[in-house]
């Protein structure tokens, strides 16, 4: 299991521990990942994804999973999230002609 957020693509970063005597030793900064059950309003399904706490706050700020996925770049999404995005776009495209006809 990779240590990468499935929605934002945030992964481990590298830096230094710096001691009082200014000796630098390499270290890794790991993202705070947690499993989350996310509800898609358009698809009517719940998806379990492993996302960072920052991504969870971003989802709340942007208004939910559907809005986030539609605006997200394909390069930063995991294959599972990309599959959900494709399903979502297909569902929204199917609903759009019905809204125009009415």
Automatic annotation (TrEMBL):
GO terms for biological process: translation. SUPFAM superfamilies: L28p-like. It comes from the Bacteria. Keywords: Ribonucleoprotein, Ribosomal protein. One of its GO terms (cellular component) is cytosolic large ribosomal subunit. The keyword Ribonucleoprotein applies. The keyword Ribosomal protein applies. Signal peptide: none annotated. It holds the Pfam family Ribosomal_L28. GO terms for molecular function: structural constituent of ribosome. NCBIfam families: L28. Belongs to the bacterial ribosomal protein bL28 family. This is Large ribosomal subunit protein bL28.
């Amino acid at each position: 299991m990779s240590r990468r957020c499935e929605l934002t693509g945030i992964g481990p970063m590298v830096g230094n521990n710096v001691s009082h005597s200014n000796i630098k030793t390499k270290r890794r900064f790991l993202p705070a990942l947690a499993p989350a059950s996310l509800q898609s309003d358009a698809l009517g399904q719940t998806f379990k994804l492993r996302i960072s706490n920052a991504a969870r706050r971003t989802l709340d700020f942007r208004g939910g999973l559907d809005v986030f996925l539609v605006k997200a770049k394909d390069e930063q999404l995991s294959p599972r999230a990309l599959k959900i995005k494709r399903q979502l776009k297909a569902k929204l495209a199917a609903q759009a002609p019905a809204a125009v006809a009415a």
